[in-house]
Design brief:
The complex is a heterodimer. Chain A is of the alpha/beta class. Chain A contains nine helices and ten strands. Chain A has two domains: 165 residues, P-loop containing nucleotide triphosphate hydrolases (Rossmann fold), CATH 3.40.50.300; 67 residues, no CATH class. The mean pLDDT of chain A is 90. The chains are: A alpha/beta, B mainly alpha.
């Protein structure tokens, strides 16, 4: 469960996030949708405790990201934009490194890494160095790394960008599987179709504010548009007018 | 403690796999240093022999006008050869650098000499030509010597004591001892050792900070449930170990190369036994913390791997600056200097190598002040890693 309450964040003169509030429930996939520069990444970085909000608060399963950031990080797995693997380590070593850093029991690490490798079906390239990985292989490995400490909440920053059709499908199936396990999945994207296909709830952000937060059907109804893309444009326009 | 060890182990393994950087970092200096020393020492030996009475050649124009003068010059180990056609040609040859110095004896030289008029000889030389300075000095000295000898003969012939012309008797007494001379050259040693140490950790320091950010692996790393202080300390520790390995390799390489260096020809008897190698390693070891934290700090500020490389290249020189300054000024070890990292290690090492007594207090102050600075820099790194701007 991820709760965001009126967070603001400025970088110098740029007011990137201006009072974003939403909640992402357990067992649901919440899509954070918005044009480039809308404040999605900044919001996700606040949730990962990388940035401190200027105002407002955010909680991960009740743990405040500022006051209790270590506890918040324990409950979060994050797949950053771009996978951020170590090219000279193998997929297995990349995952095992995070397992050790997260403080997993020494004896349990090898087993847990193997389990992740099986779940994500990355055994084929698990013992190759990440340097030569395809985009899809990198993303899957990074997802495995994010899941190593079995976090209740998962934050994915534009995970499908640059993936081919098959890899995107595979990743979607995985995300659905994670949801079925009762996890809270928060997922950012600027691609309407993808969010529509996958998410239970959609939170549209534009100009640092939440334009609308509802289910796909709810958004269609409230904007009066059948096509989600039109609805998206209408929602963004609503913020611009306000 | 466990996260620190985890980060440490990962950085060490990761960087051991970076073969090319590893070779440059760890083996560049140990191979380059003995070679450099051989060249430096050979050059030094050549210069020493130069200043001794080596036969030099002197082109002379109008040699027939002053046979006695030329005989005198030959007695001073100056070989007379035929010079260019005339003064203009001589000036040209010297200007072009074909000759270092040319002596012109005018036709009326003998006449003037007989008439007790100061007889003119012309010496063509180029003051800007530093490589010819030794030869020019030799010829000048020889001409001056002939001048003195002739004056002495003239005075004697008139019953005057030639000593009247020498109110001053200037004696040069060279007090430099063989070990003192060695110290100047061996002062370069600590410079090399520190340089090797810095080089050894540079790539890792960059890779673990600017490289981590550039790869995009810093963000997920900082999102993990562990204290940032542990991360940074693990990285600095790994850098320290690489620096220590580079230092050890460089010390051993010099130890191995030393018997082949012609130091005795320069009258040097450096004390560089295995015990000194170990002492030097222990002495310089605290400096790894200063170097590692300094490089980590600097590389964390930069925006990219490239930029980090540029800045750290400059930073390589910073710890060696005090050594260079002191080497040029040839300052004696003093108590206050022991508080300056790099400089204190340098001064103590020079004392050890040139067999001088070393004060235990100096060693203690050097180690303490160096480790203190290292701790402060590490603390600054930890502070820096809590700043949001770090993500770039």
């Amino acid at each position: 469960m991820i709760e965001v309450e009126g967070i603001h964040k400025s970088f110098g003169a740029v007011h990137a996030v201006r009072g974003v509030s939403f909640a992402a429930e357990d067992g649901r996939i919440t899509g954070l949708l918005g044009p480039n520069g809308a404040g999605k990444s900044t919001t996700l970085r606040v949730l990962c405790t990388l940035l401190k909000p200027d105002r407002g608060a955010a909680r991960i399963d009740g743990a405040d990201v500022v006051a209790d950031s270590l506890a918040a990080r324990r409950k979060i797995g994050s797949l950053p934009h771009g996978s951020g693997l170590y090219p000279r380590l193998t997929a297995r070593e990349n995952i095992a490194y995070y397992a050790r850093l997260c403080g997993l029991e020494r004896r349990a690490i090898a087993g847990r890494v193997e389990e992740i490798i099986n779940t994500l079906d990355i055994g084929d390239f698990a013992d190759r160095r990440a340097k030569g990985f395809s985009h899809g292989e990198r993303t899957k490995t990074a997802l495995g790394r994010a899941l190593i400490h079995d976090p209740q909440n998962l934050i994915l920053d534009e995970p499908t960008t640059g993936l081919d059709v098959m890899a995107t499908r595979g990743l979607r199936e995985l995300i659905v599987k994670l949801k079925a396990q009762g996890r809270c999945v928060l997922f950012s994207s600027h691609v309407m179709q993808e969010v529509a296909a996958l998410c239970d709830d959609i939170c549209i952000i534009a100009h640092g504010k939440v334009a609308i937060h509802d289910s796909a059907d709810g958004i269609r109804q409230r904007t009066g548009r059948d096509d989600l893309e039109d609805a998206f444009v209408a929602a963004v326009a609503m913020v611009e007018e306000a | 403690m466990r996260p620190v060890l985890t980060v440490f182990a990962k950085e060490v393994i990761d960087n051991l796999r970076d073969r090319r950087s590893l070779l440059t970092a760890l083996f560049g200096m140990p191979i380059a240093m003995p070679i450099f020393f051989v060249v430096l020492i050979s050059f030094q030996i050549e210069r020493n022999i130069d200043s001794a009475e080596e036969l030099i050649e002197l082109p002379v124009i109008g040699a027939e006008h002053a046979p006695n003068l030329l005989r005198y010059l030959e007695s001073r180990n100056i070989d007379i050869v035929a010079g260019p056609a005339d003064g203009a040609a001589a000036a040209e040859a010297v200007q072009a650098g074909d000759e270092d110095v040319v002596l012109l004896i005018p036709a009326d030289f003998g006449e003037e000499l007989a008439g007790m008029i100061p007889a003119t000889v012309e010496l063509y030389l180029d003051q800007a030509n530093t490589s010819g300075n030794a030869d020019i000095g030799r010829v000048r000295d020889a001409l001056f010597g002939y001048n003195q000898a002739l004056a002495g003969i003239r005075l004697s012939a008139r019953g005057v004591n030639p000593a009247l012309l020498r109110p001053l008797n200037i004696d040069h007494i060279d007090v430099s001892t063989p070990s003192g001379r060695a110290a100047i050259l061996l002062g370069m040693l600590s410079y090399f050792f520190l340089f090797a140490l810095l080089m050894g950790g540079m790539y890792l320091a960059i890779d673990a900070t600017a490289g981590e950010r550039e790869r995009g692996s810093l963000e997920p790393l900082l999102s993990l449930p562990l204290a940032r202080a542990h991360l940074i300390i693990g990285k600095i520790a790994a850098t320290c170990v690489f620096m220590a390995i580079a230092l050890a390799l460089c010390l051993l390489s010099f130890f191995a190369a030393l018997p082949f260096l012609p130091l005795e020809q320069l009258g040097m008897t450096p004390n560089f036994s295995l015990a000194v190698v170990l002492a030097a390693f222990a002495l310089l070891l605290p400096f790894t913390l200063v170097s590692a934290s300094m490089m980590t700090l600097a590389a964390s500020f930069t925006k990219s791997y490239k930029e980090a490389q540029t800045w750290l290249g400059v930073l390589l020189l910073v710890p060696t600056m005090p050594i260079l300054i002191v080497s040029i000024l040839t300052v004696q070890p003093r108590f206050e200097f022991m508080f300056i990292p790099a400089l204190s290690q340098h001064l103590i090492l020079v004392d050890i190598v040139s067999n001088e007594p070393v004060s235990a207090l100096h060693i203690a102050i050097s180690a303490t002040s160096t480790l203190t600075l290292g701790a402060i820099l590490t603390w600054l790194c930890v502070r820096l890693y809590h700043r949001e701007a770090l993500l770039g």
